[in-house]
């Protein structure tokens, strides 16, 4: 999937989130979950750790902050 196709998924999201997602897509070449959290802190955290959201440990503290066990997407 091309970056332009991926970025179309986020056309009506907040501009700060879109900017962070653009960097995420550049780094990992895959989309961020549309029904997941839209938090810039979490996106930036994945980029800095060099780990995609899919590969973050469920026990990671930042992951847990935005994905509490009680939330079902």
UniProtKB/TrEMBL annotation:
Protein name in UniProt: Uncharacterized protein
